[in-house]
Amino acid sequence: MSRPGPTTFQVQVLRLGFRALRAFAPDLAQRGAERLFSTPRRHREPEAEREARRRGRPFHFLSKGLRLRGHAWGEGPAILCLHGWEGRGTQFHAFIEPLTQAGFSLLAFDQPGHGGSEGRRSGPLDWAQAIQDLVHQVGPIHGLIAHSLGAAGAAIAMDHGVPVPRAVFLAPPAQPDPYFEHLLDLLGFPPSEHAKAFVAYLQRTGLPPERVRLRSLASRLSSPLLVIHDRGDRDVPWSDGAAIASAWPSATLHITEGLGHRRILRDASVIEKTVAFLGEQAGTALPFHGDGLRSLEWHLYQRDLRMEDRVPQLTLT
Protein backbone atom coordinates (compact mmCIF):
# COMPACT_ATOMS: atom_id res chain seq x y z
CA MET A 1 0.00 0.00 0.00
CA SER A 2 2.78 2.41 0.84
CA ARG A 3 4.74 4.25 -1.78
CA PRO A 4 8.55 4.63 -1.95
CA GLY A 5 9.60 7.42 0.35
CA PRO A 6 10.63 10.85 -0.97
CA THR A 7 14.26 11.92 -0.82
CA THR A 8 15.62 13.85 2.13
CA PHE A 9 15.73 17.03 0.03
CA GLN A 10 12.12 16.62 -1.10
CA VAL A 11 11.01 16.09 2.49
CA GLN A 12 12.82 19.22 3.62
CA VAL A 13 11.24 21.31 0.86
CA LEU A 14 7.78 19.95 1.61
CA ARG A 15 8.13 20.51 5.35
CA LEU A 16 9.23 24.11 4.83
CA GLY A 17 6.37 24.79 2.44
CA PHE A 18 3.76 23.22 4.68
CA ARG A 19 5.14 24.95 7.76
CA ALA A 20 4.58 28.31 6.09
CA LEU A 21 1.17 27.29 4.80
CA ARG A 22 0.06 26.03 8.21
CA ALA A 23 1.04 29.33 9.78
CA PHE A 24 -1.20 31.39 7.47
CA ALA A 25 -3.86 28.96 6.21
CA PRO A 26 -4.16 25.78 8.30
CA ASP A 27 -7.17 24.52 6.39
CA LEU A 28 -5.37 24.90 3.06
CA ALA A 29 -2.38 23.04 4.50
CA GLN A 30 -4.62 20.17 5.54
CA ARG A 31 -6.31 20.05 2.15
CA GLY A 32 -2.88 20.08 0.51
CA ALA A 33 -1.89 17.04 2.57
CA GLU A 34 -5.10 15.31 1.54
CA ARG A 35 -4.32 16.05 -2.09
CA LEU A 36 -0.87 14.49 -1.79
CA PHE A 37 -2.36 11.47 -0.03
CA SER A 38 -5.02 11.02 -2.72
CA THR A 39 -2.83 11.48 -5.81
CA PRO A 40 -1.26 8.25 -7.07
CA ARG A 41 1.78 8.14 -9.30
CA ARG A 42 1.66 6.14 -12.53
CA HIS A 43 4.53 3.69 -12.83
CA ARG A 44 6.03 2.12 -15.91
CA GLU A 45 4.35 -1.13 -16.91
CA PRO A 46 6.76 -4.10 -16.93
CA GLU A 47 6.99 -6.40 -19.94
CA ALA A 48 5.09 -9.24 -18.26
CA GLU A 49 2.11 -6.93 -17.77
CA ARG A 50 2.32 -5.56 -21.31
CA GLU A 51 2.29 -9.10 -22.67
CA ALA A 52 -0.73 -9.97 -20.55
CA ARG A 53 -2.51 -6.86 -21.78
CA ARG A 54 -1.85 -7.84 -25.39
CA ARG A 55 -3.45 -11.25 -24.77
CA GLY A 56 -6.52 -9.80 -23.08
CA ARG A 57 -9.71 -8.33 -24.47
CA PRO A 58 -9.72 -4.59 -23.72
CA PHE A 59 -12.83 -2.80 -22.51
CA HIS A 60 -13.70 0.58 -21.02
CA PHE A 61 -16.50 1.70 -18.74
CA LEU A 62 -17.57 4.93 -17.08
CA SER A 63 -17.46 5.63 -13.36
CA LYS A 64 -18.24 9.09 -11.98
CA GLY A 65 -17.59 10.54 -15.42
CA LEU A 66 -14.15 8.92 -15.79
CA ARG A 67 -13.29 6.44 -18.51
CA LEU A 68 -11.65 3.44 -16.85
CA ARG A 69 -9.59 0.84 -18.71
CA GLY A 70 -9.90 -2.90 -18.18
CA HIS A 71 -9.06 -6.26 -19.72
CA ALA A 72 -10.73 -9.67 -19.74
CA TRP A 73 -9.28 -13.14 -20.22
CA GLY A 74 -10.98 -16.52 -20.56
CA GLU A 75 -14.59 -17.66 -20.36
CA GLY A 76 -16.90 -18.81 -17.63
CA PRO A 77 -17.86 -17.30 -14.26
CA ALA A 78 -16.04 -14.02 -13.69
CA ILE A 79 -13.37 -13.40 -11.07
CA LEU A 80 -12.80 -9.68 -10.55
CA CYS A 81 -9.20 -8.77 -9.66
CA LEU A 82 -8.51 -5.49 -7.88
CA HIS A 83 -5.05 -3.95 -7.68
CA GLY A 84 -3.61 -1.85 -4.86
CA TRP A 85 -2.39 1.74 -4.56
CA GLU A 86 -0.37 2.89 -7.60
CA GLY A 87 -0.91 -0.51 -9.23
CA ARG A 88 -2.62 -1.77 -12.38
CA GLY A 89 -5.05 -4.52 -13.21
CA THR A 90 -2.40 -6.34 -15.23
CA GLN A 91 -0.43 -6.99 -12.03
CA PHE A 92 -2.58 -10.13 -11.80
CA HIS A 93 -0.96 -11.56 -14.94
CA ALA A 94 0.27 -14.65 -13.04
CA PHE A 95 -3.34 -15.53 -12.17
CA ILE A 96 -4.57 -15.54 -15.78
CA GLU A 97 -3.62 -19.06 -16.84
CA PRO A 98 -4.52 -20.81 -13.54
CA LEU A 99 -7.92 -19.13 -13.37
CA THR A 100 -8.83 -19.65 -17.02
CA GLN A 101 -7.70 -23.29 -16.90
CA ALA A 102 -9.94 -23.73 -13.87
CA GLY A 103 -12.90 -22.58 -15.98
CA PHE A 104 -13.11 -18.97 -14.86
CA SER A 105 -12.75 -15.68 -16.69
CA LEU A 106 -10.62 -12.95 -15.17
CA LEU A 107 -11.64 -9.30 -15.21
CA ALA A 108 -9.21 -6.59 -14.13
CA PHE A 109 -9.28 -2.83 -14.51
CA ASP A 110 -7.22 0.21 -13.55
CA GLN A 111 -8.78 2.23 -10.76
CA PRO A 112 -9.32 6.01 -11.23
CA GLY A 113 -5.99 7.80 -11.51
CA HIS A 114 -4.12 4.54 -12.16
CA GLY A 115 -2.63 2.86 -15.22
CA GLY A 116 -4.59 3.60 -18.38
CA SER A 117 -7.66 5.00 -16.63
CA GLU A 118 -8.65 8.64 -16.44
CA GLY A 119 -8.47 10.74 -13.32
CA ARG A 120 -5.79 12.20 -11.08
CA ARG A 121 -7.03 11.82 -7.52
CA SER A 122 -8.29 8.57 -6.07
CA GLY A 123 -9.88 7.42 -2.83
CA PRO A 124 -11.69 4.50 -1.21
CA LEU A 125 -15.18 5.64 -2.18
CA ASP A 126 -14.05 6.15 -5.80
CA TRP A 127 -12.71 2.58 -5.85
CA ALA A 128 -15.90 1.14 -4.37
CA GLN A 129 -18.00 3.08 -6.89
CA ALA A 130 -15.90 1.78 -9.79
CA ILE A 131 -16.40 -1.79 -8.57
CA GLN A 132 -20.14 -1.28 -8.32
CA ASP A 133 -20.30 0.32 -11.77
CA LEU A 134 -18.45 -2.54 -13.45
CA VAL A 135 -20.48 -5.27 -11.73
CA HIS A 136 -23.67 -3.41 -12.66
CA GLN A 137 -22.64 -3.48 -16.31
CA VAL A 138 -21.24 -7.02 -16.71
CA GLY A 139 -23.59 -8.84 -14.37
CA PRO A 140 -22.89 -11.03 -11.33
CA ILE A 141 -19.36 -12.14 -10.49
CA HIS A 142 -18.42 -15.45 -8.88
CA GLY A 143 -15.70 -13.93 -6.71
CA LEU A 144 -12.92 -11.41 -6.41
CA ILE A 145 -9.25 -11.19 -5.57
CA ALA A 146 -8.04 -7.92 -4.08
CA HIS A 147 -4.50 -6.85 -3.28
CA SER A 148 -3.60 -4.34 -0.58
CA LEU A 149 -5.78 -1.21 -0.75
CA GLY A 150 -7.94 -2.95 -3.35
CA ALA A 151 -9.30 -5.03 -0.47
CA ALA A 152 -10.54 -1.88 1.27
CA GLY A 153 -12.35 -0.76 -1.88
CA ALA A 154 -13.84 -4.24 -2.26
CA ALA A 155 -15.06 -4.32 1.35
CA ILE A 156 -16.73 -0.90 1.02
CA ALA A 157 -18.44 -2.02 -2.19
CA MET A 158 -19.61 -5.23 -0.52
CA ASP A 159 -20.86 -3.24 2.47
CA HIS A 160 -22.96 -1.20 0.04
CA GLY A 161 -24.60 -4.23 -1.50
CA VAL A 162 -22.31 -5.45 -4.30
CA PRO A 163 -22.81 -9.25 -4.23
CA VAL A 164 -19.52 -11.16 -3.89
CA PRO A 165 -20.02 -14.90 -3.25
CA ARG A 166 -16.34 -15.52 -2.37
CA ALA A 167 -13.37 -13.22 -1.85
CA VAL A 168 -9.60 -13.46 -1.44
CA PHE A 169 -7.69 -10.57 0.14
CA LEU A 170 -3.93 -10.47 -0.40
CA ALA A 171 -2.01 -8.30 2.11
CA PRO A 172 -5.04 -6.18 3.11
CA PRO A 173 -4.59 -3.09 5.33
CA ALA A 174 -6.79 -3.03 8.43
CA GLN A 175 -7.18 0.75 8.28
CA PRO A 176 -5.71 3.73 6.37
CA ASP A 177 -5.00 5.85 9.46
CA PRO A 178 -1.28 4.96 9.85
CA TYR A 179 -0.49 5.82 6.23
CA PHE A 180 -2.21 9.20 6.41
CA GLU A 181 -0.54 9.95 9.73
CA HIS A 182 2.85 9.00 8.29
CA LEU A 183 2.38 11.54 5.51
CA LEU A 184 1.32 14.22 8.03
CA ASP A 185 4.43 13.44 10.06
CA LEU A 186 6.64 13.85 6.99
CA LEU A 187 5.01 17.21 6.28
CA GLY A 188 5.63 18.46 9.80
CA PHE A 189 2.10 18.28 11.22
CA PRO A 190 2.30 17.76 15.02
CA PRO A 191 0.94 14.41 16.28
CA SER A 192 -1.79 16.23 18.21
CA GLU A 193 -3.40 17.23 14.88
CA HIS A 194 -3.26 13.83 13.16
CA ALA A 195 -6.54 12.30 14.34
CA LYS A 196 -8.56 15.45 13.67
CA ALA A 197 -7.03 15.83 10.21
CA PHE A 198 -7.86 12.24 9.32
CA VAL A 199 -11.50 12.63 10.37
CA ALA A 200 -11.75 15.83 8.33
CA TYR A 201 -10.32 14.02 5.31
CA LEU A 202 -12.89 11.24 5.62
CA GLN A 203 -15.71 13.74 5.99
CA ARG A 204 -14.71 15.34 2.71
CA THR A 205 -14.62 11.93 0.97
CA GLY A 206 -18.09 11.09 2.27
CA LEU A 207 -17.19 8.16 4.51
CA PRO A 208 -17.34 7.98 8.31
CA PRO A 209 -14.30 6.31 9.94
CA GLU A 210 -16.12 3.09 10.79
CA ARG A 211 -17.11 2.61 7.12
CA VAL A 212 -13.60 2.98 5.69
CA ARG A 213 -11.60 0.89 8.17
CA LEU A 214 -11.61 -2.64 6.84
CA ARG A 215 -11.25 -4.10 10.32
CA SER A 216 -14.47 -2.31 11.34
CA LEU A 217 -16.32 -3.39 8.21
CA ALA A 218 -15.29 -7.03 8.59
CA SER A 219 -17.94 -7.88 11.17
CA ARG A 220 -20.67 -6.58 8.81
CA LEU A 221 -19.74 -8.90 5.93
CA SER A 222 -20.51 -12.59 5.62
CA SER A 223 -19.12 -13.85 2.29
CA PRO A 224 -16.52 -16.62 2.65
CA LEU A 225 -13.12 -14.92 2.74
CA LEU A 226 -9.54 -16.13 2.44
CA VAL A 227 -6.89 -13.72 3.73
CA ILE A 228 -3.31 -14.36 2.62
CA HIS A 229 -0.58 -12.22 4.18
CA ASP A 230 3.19 -12.52 4.38
CA ARG A 231 4.87 -12.35 7.76
CA GLY A 232 7.66 -10.21 6.32
CA ASP A 233 5.40 -7.63 4.60
CA ARG A 234 7.06 -4.23 5.18
CA ASP A 235 4.29 -2.17 3.62
CA VAL A 236 1.25 -3.65 5.38
CA PRO A 237 2.02 -5.68 8.54
CA TRP A 238 0.71 -9.23 8.61
CA SER A 239 -1.08 -8.40 11.85
CA ASP A 240 -3.50 -6.31 9.75
CA GLY A 241 -4.54 -9.39 7.79
CA ALA A 242 -4.85 -11.36 11.01
CA ALA A 243 -7.09 -8.69 12.54
CA ILE A 244 -9.36 -8.65 9.49
CA ALA A 245 -9.64 -12.43 9.41
CA SER A 246 -10.40 -12.51 13.14
CA ALA A 247 -13.22 -9.95 12.82
CA TRP A 248 -14.74 -11.42 9.61
CA PRO A 249 -17.33 -14.09 10.53
CA SER A 250 -16.43 -16.60 7.79
CA ALA A 251 -12.75 -15.86 7.11
CA THR A 252 -9.68 -18.08 6.94
CA LEU A 253 -6.15 -16.73 7.43
CA HIS A 254 -3.07 -18.10 5.64
CA ILE A 255 0.36 -16.71 6.52
CA THR A 256 3.28 -16.97 4.07
CA GLU A 257 7.01 -16.43 4.52
CA GLY A 258 9.50 -14.58 2.33
CA LEU A 259 7.10 -13.04 -0.19
CA GLY A 260 6.75 -9.49 1.10
CA HIS A 261 4.02 -7.20 -0.18
CA ARG A 262 4.26 -7.66 -3.96
CA ARG A 263 5.79 -11.06 -4.71
CA ILE A 264 2.65 -12.51 -3.14
CA LEU A 265 0.93 -11.69 -6.47
CA ARG A 266 3.29 -14.02 -8.37
CA ASP A 267 3.81 -16.90 -5.96
CA ALA A 268 2.65 -20.25 -7.33
CA SER A 269 1.48 -21.60 -3.97
CA VAL A 270 -0.54 -18.45 -3.25
CA ILE A 271 -2.15 -18.63 -6.68
CA GLU A 272 -2.92 -22.33 -6.26
CA LYS A 273 -4.54 -21.77 -2.86
CA THR A 274 -6.53 -18.81 -4.23
CA VAL A 275 -7.87 -20.71 -7.25
CA ALA A 276 -8.77 -23.71 -5.09
CA PHE A 277 -10.68 -21.50 -2.66
CA LEU A 278 -12.59 -19.76 -5.44
CA GLY A 279 -13.39 -23.10 -7.04
CA GLU A 280 -14.87 -24.71 -3.92
CA GLN A 281 -18.38 -23.76 -5.03
CA ALA A 282 -17.80 -23.32 -8.74
CA GLY A 283 -20.81 -25.51 -9.46
CA THR A 284 -23.06 -22.80 -8.03
CA ALA A 285 -21.27 -19.91 -9.74
CA LEU A 286 -23.47 -17.07 -10.89
CA PRO A 287 -23.74 -16.85 -14.71
CA PHE A 288 -23.56 -13.68 -16.74
CA HIS A 289 -26.80 -12.08 -17.93
CA GLY A 290 -27.16 -14.39 -20.90
CA ASP A 291 -24.96 -16.98 -22.57
CA GLY A 292 -21.38 -17.10 -21.30
CA LEU A 293 -18.61 -15.09 -22.87
CA ARG A 294 -20.75 -13.64 -25.64
CA SER A 295 -22.95 -12.06 -23.00
CA LEU A 296 -19.89 -10.65 -21.20
CA GLU A 297 -18.61 -9.08 -24.39
CA TRP A 298 -22.07 -7.76 -25.20
CA HIS A 299 -22.30 -6.03 -21.83
CA LEU A 300 -18.81 -4.60 -22.06
CA TYR A 301 -19.10 -3.28 -25.57
CA GLN A 302 -22.71 -2.13 -25.84
CA ARG A 303 -22.48 1.62 -26.05
CA ASP A 304 -25.67 2.39 -24.15
CA LEU A 305 -24.53 0.34 -21.13
CA ARG A 306 -21.45 2.55 -20.82
CA MET A 307 -23.52 5.70 -20.34
CA GLU A 308 -23.05 7.10 -16.86
CA ASP A 309 -26.75 7.84 -16.29
CA ARG A 310 -27.47 4.10 -16.53
CA VAL A 311 -25.28 3.35 -13.48
CA PRO A 312 -26.57 3.97 -9.94
CA GLN A 313 -24.28 5.99 -7.69
CA LEU A 314 -23.09 4.44 -4.47
CA THR A 315 -24.70 6.08 -1.45
CA LEU A 316 -24.30 5.55 2.25
CA THR A 317 -27.14 3.75 4.04
Automatic annotation (TrEMBL):
Residue span, AB hydrolase-1 domain: 79-266
Pfam families assigned to the protein according to its UniProt record, in alphabetical order: Abhydrolase_6
UniProt region (Disordered), positions on chain: 35-54
InterPro entries: AB_hydrolase_1, AB_hydrolase_fold
Name of the featured protein: AB hydrolase-1 domain-containing protein
